[in-house]
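can u do me a favor
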């Protein structure tokens, strides 16, 4: 899967440190978030 982004808007670490969230503007100009587990 490929995700095209225009701009990174946020980067957060979960309170328990087990995941990160990246907020961005996608290729169509829509806001989106991806959550990634670090475990």
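np, heres the sequence
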């Amino acid at each position: 899967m490929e995700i095209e982004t225009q701009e990174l808007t946020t980067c957060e670490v979960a309170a328990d440190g087990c995941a990160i969230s990246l907020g961005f503007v996608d290729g169509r100009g829509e806001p989106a978030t991806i959550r990634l587990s670090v475990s």
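Residues 4 and 27 are 5 Å apart (CA to CA). hope that helps!!
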